[in-house]
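Module 6 notes. Inverse folding takes a fixed backbone as the condition and produces residue identities as the prediction. Think of it as a translation problem where the source language is geometry and the target language is the twenty amino acids. Below is one complete input and output pair. Work through it position by position during the lab.
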């Protein structure tokens, strides 16, 4: 990434940052108690013929039964180089193309990644939320140190326990224990939703198989399958 490109990306992030809304009344018609469908989003990468490629997979579930309603995927070459803090600029084009393929309009999008838990509060879940016009949540498997020094406090070992990740007096996200005695996940609101609601909804979307919420777990599994198939072609 050249310096001009980095400055342009910073400008975009800072402009969007001013518009972040972390409450449940940001989007007209959104009612956390009336969610019908939820989508999990993830991407997988590989190199082939001197190109960096990626596939985006979206799995849409019935919120109450967790039944799979549809699965869609889209793959393309990645042209933006990797740089910490600017992941969305690599992934958003594929995400939006995959969303176009959906037959259901999700009430909520869940990302395998961060949202507000980001140096400029512009993780993938937050940034993408502005283009999806739908509430978003970020749930990461590993902890991203925003300032390279702030750590998190381990929550109690019981399922549902959490500790807030506080940086310079502000809550960026939570370390959330989704199953008793397992590693926590790292939850942050994306956009158009409060952290408390994001926490409650995430806990309702956790199954018995994994500490990872079902939507992003299934999306992750789909990306691995899709990548293996595409690499054979």
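Target side of the pair, the amino acids:
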């Amino acid at each position: 990434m050249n310096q001009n490109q980095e400055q342009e990306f910073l400008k975009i992030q800072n402009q969007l940052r001013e518009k972040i809304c972390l409450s449940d009344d940001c989007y007209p018609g959104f009612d956390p108690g009336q969610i019908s469908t939820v989508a999990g989003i993830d991407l997988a990468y590989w190199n082939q013929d001197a190109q960096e490629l990626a596939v985006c997979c979206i799995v849409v579930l019935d919120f109450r039964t967790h039944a799979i309603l549809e699965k869609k995927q889209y793959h393309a070459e990645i042209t933006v180089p990797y740089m910490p803090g600017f992941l969305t600029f690599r992934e958003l084009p594929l995400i939006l193309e995959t969303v176009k393929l959906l037959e259901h309009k999700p009430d909520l999008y869940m990302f395998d990644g961060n949202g507000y838990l980001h140096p400029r509060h512009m993780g993938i879940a937050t940034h993408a939320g502005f283009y999806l016009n739908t509430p978003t949540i970020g749930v990461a498997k590993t902890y991203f140190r925003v300032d390279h020094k702030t750590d998190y406090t381990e929550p109690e070992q019981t399922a549902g326990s959490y500790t807030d990740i506080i940086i310079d007096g502000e809550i960026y996200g939570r370390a959330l224990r989704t199953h008793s005695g397992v590693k926590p996940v790292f939850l942050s609101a994306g956009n158009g939703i409060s952290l408390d609601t994001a926490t409650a909804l995430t806990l309702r979307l956790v199954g018995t198989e994994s500490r990872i919420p079902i939507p992003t777990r299934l999306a992750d599994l789909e990306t691995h399958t899709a990548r293996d198939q595409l690499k054979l072609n």
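Reference fact for the lab report: The mean pLDDT is 95.
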